[in-house]
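Entry, Tuesday afternoon. Goal for today is a structural model of the target with magnesium ion bound, before we commit to ordering more compound. Inputs were pasted exactly as handed over by J.K., no edits. I checked the ligand SMILES twice against the vendor sheet because last time a stereocentre got dropped in transcription.
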Amino acid sequence: MKGTFFKEFFNRNGPLLGTYLLLAVAFWIIILIVLPQLSMLDYSFRFNLPPSAQGGEKDVYTMSNYQHFFNGSEGNPERLSIFGYQTDIPFNKVDIAVFFKTILAAIFVTAFDLALCYPLAYFLGQSASGPSGRVLLLLLIIPYWVNEILRAFAFRIIFGATGVINTVLVGVGILDTPIDFIRENVALYAGLGYAYLLLMIFPIYNAIESLDRNQIEAARDLGSPWWRIHWRIVIPFAKPGIVSGCTMVFMLTAGALAAPQILGGPSSLWFTQIIYQWFNTGGNWPRGAAYAVVLLFICIVFVLAMMRLFKVKMGEIGK
Amino acid sequence: MSTGVGVDLDDVWVKFGDFVAVREANVSIKGGEFFSFLGPSGCGKTTILRTVSGFQEPSQGEVRIGGTNMVGIGPNLRPTALIFQNLALFPLMPIWENITFSMEVRGASKGERRKRADELLELIALQGQGDKMVNELSGGQKQRVAIARALCAEPDVLLLDEPLSALDLKLRQHMRTELRAIQKQVGITFIYITHDQGEALTMSDNVAVMSAGVIDQIADGRTIYDDPASPFVASFVGENNVFSGKIKTITKDYAVVDTPAGDLRAKIGTAARGKLQKGNDAMAFVRPEALAIAAGRKGKDENRLTASIKTEEFEGQSYNIFLNQADGAEIKMSLVNQGQAYEHAPGSQMTLSCNADQAVVLPAGALASE
Amino acid sequence: MRQNPLIKVFLAIYLVIFFSYLLGPLVIMGITAFNSPSFPKAAPWECLTFEWFSVLANDHRIMTGIRNSFIVGIGTVILSVIIGLAGALVLTQIWPKLRATYYTIVIAPILIPGVVLGISTLVFWGRMNAFLGLSDESFLQNGIFLTIIGQTTFISSYCMLVFVARLQRFDQGLTEAALDLGATHVQAFRKVMLPFLYPAMGSAAVLAFLASFENYNTTTFTFGKYPTLTIELAQKVRYGINPSISALAVIIVTITILGALFYEMRKRREAMAIANGAPASAVSGGGFKLPKMLAGNPAAIILALVLIGGIGTVLFAQAYNPQACKVEVREEKRKATDKRIQELQEKAKQRSLQEKLKGPDIFNQPAQSPVPPAQAPSNPGSGTFGDVFNPGNLDEGDAKKTPDKGSSLNPGSGTFGGVFNPKNLNESSGKGTSQ
Ligand SMILES: Nc1ncnc2c1ncn2[C@@H]1O[C@H](COP(=O)(O)OP(=O)(O)OP(=O)(O)O)[C@@H](O)[C@H]1O
Ligand SMILES: [Mg+2]
């Protein structure tokens, strides 16, 4: 069967073109996608050795990097407690807390974006056609083209201790002392929510746009209140778009690095920042790779869970 | 003009996985002939054409063009040009570039190409319109451009896949005549595909009728119409009334079939000669225009059939009466409109007559579905 | 649609809030680029200035970053378009049973966190390098190479999606027709398929370049000795801010807006052409008139306005001199500040009296943004000044720190202003990352 596939493939494309297609795709899938991921996985099971010792007899597989994620470094006084029962298992409270905080915050940001974007996507998809709709779309697109760093920077200007909000609030006399939005993570969440807003709007918008207006009219005609129209007709129809948007926003938020680095308060670490530290200041690459594997793993689980839960196919994501 | 190059299919099979799209096709097309494949949608016509043009390798058997076996020769190297079912004109090129694309890939100079384009544009009556884009043409004009583009490649065999199906009736009839004229003019072999029997019968020297991947009959239009080789052909080409039953008596050329409308004596189809015996299930076919209302004394070769009247229908030049046989099978009778009155009460019995030489007996078999 | 007025009001409010959230930050950032205080601020407005643009132009690292970004961007565009095109073509031909799996694999890089892509690229090519026995300085370990490779991994997926969308409208029959007319496979591809894909290639290239240009997560692991502009920006934003970043932002935003508008305009034109039943090139090639293009094409209108505005600004900047305004503002501020200081000193005295009565309560609050003691001397005679003065320190700093290219009114102010404000921010981000 495979033989005939290749034969047909070359029949259709000719030798030169067929070779280009196969080589380019093979390079992409094997060299760029699969091997690096496998390599990273393999690397995460190694000790952090100096280059000279790599490949030597000490270079054996180990779980230590993952153990570190769960149990912390040796001599870690924290112990896991399950429902209040203290156990003897050492417990890397800092990293695991950051991990869960990142996931929770990403979910929160996703939900926030969904709530904020759904009405606009609906409005754009159903009511705003013609030039005004196109202008709104354009206004939506422009910030998306602007560098992520600069978007975060803009939030820093707004929320900084001497930023616009504080200056105005203090100037007007509402506040006595500036609020430290950065420390309170307000800036971080606002910035993260901002960063991937568009990836929420467009899939939903695309889905809703193709919804036949008559369906809504018919439902309204039958006396359905507006919330029921949304619940029973619009949302089920836009489901693939919603899932696609939520998946993208969640993944990008959980994997964000720039916004937490720029907008994160002193006490807030994002999981990617820990990874970053292992690679830079921490100087322990295998451990960083292990943490990256953990992040990748949770992201895959999340995508699969979303798709299973909402019965959406892979083909609908990324449209 | 040249006499053209012949095309032979020798026991050709085409399979897609387990699905057999073409079964045991044996066709011999003479050079310079206008040959049609006729059959219902999905019967494998396009597949045969793609096999000839080289887009589809036969799973078995041999395609020869001008006597040369075409195995392993790609579509760009075969002396054929295909006019696609949807024309497949290049939307990003002006008309003249479309027409001379085959010269462009051979590296002909621009001057040469323009000159040839002008000649061909004249042939298809589109002089001076070479710089238009494809989307600026009407359906019939696109059609003609597609033909010119194929002719420009100077093929030995021109393959046309239902090129007229997208056109309206008037234009289609006009294009039929034009196609035939062009074929006469250039004198190359045309292989034409259609599911429209009128098209096949009017234009072709020979027609192959296909059903579900099998070629049932190859003959000229008259033979196909008058002497079909199978119940499928009989019922697919033109309208036909079916009278089924067992053979009562049989001679060398004629058989009597015991039908619900009464005994029917009919000529045995050429393809069925020697294959029928007394007691076999058979079908007799009578065209609507071969039926008449019985009058006077029964002639020597005349059949008398009875059926009950269902409805009547006025169709301008003709006037149709629909009847039911005793088992419910329908009969259609077509009378030339001579100002007769409608006087037949539905449900009443009527006696019909038809000549034995205008009825054909074949072994029972699958009919063409509506 | 029947709509009651209340819903309309809510809708309007919602739209205003939404678009303020979306565009407000960019506008405010844009304003700061033209405001004279050396810490990027939109309010209070002081003096219109263009000096941040020249500060930017003299920033060596930014300029190198831009150069690196361009090299990486071009490399990534070339690779991604080539790969994405192949990926899309294979998707249209692949054996149906394999299609879903194939699609999942090639779309995965979009969903894999950028950080992970960066790390895996770094690790894989590092090992490849070791495996091949090359030195640490080898090509495979070169920051530009790694960055291009890392970015190509996922940008190819974007490009592929662009091509897939276009290919869905391609009639495979056209390629067959070309072959049938005697073209070789390569000729058929070049003369029939490629021209059809040109618009998509343009879109894909623009998309790829922008994605590459702004990428941070992947690049931050792979850049090696060749920091791209985004990396330099991130460094600057994290470790010290002045409005020259805003100035850069204004430039980038303007360019991206121009790009986005241009892109939109082209897409719109294409859509219009298709609506009219003509291929895009037919329309652009034929007598396409400018006014007609503007009509009903908001992108084109905005593009024209932005261009005019930009040219106007540049011309104005040549002629404008903010010096007078600056002196004035400085003067005003100094007076206001003096007054304020006096007031506050009064207050401080009172408070320090109160403190003696109930101390901890008050200490806690102002400690949030500590002022290094070293700066106290500039205001002799107030030990508690730093703490208490917090809300006002902005005005203070700005009044004095306005960079004056050498000639400073107040000898101490240069260092004071320069150190004080960025320090404030450094604190928080410094902690944020050094934990
Ligand atoms: N590439 C293919 N793979 C699998 N099956 C195919 C393929 N091409 C054609 N078939 C099948 O072969 C049969 C014949 O197809 P073909 O296109 O030859 O029909 P056709 O006679 O040209 O019909 P139409 O008049 O509708 O064009 C159909 O049942 C079709 O589904
Ligand atoms: Mg067909």
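Chain B has a mean pLDDT of 86.
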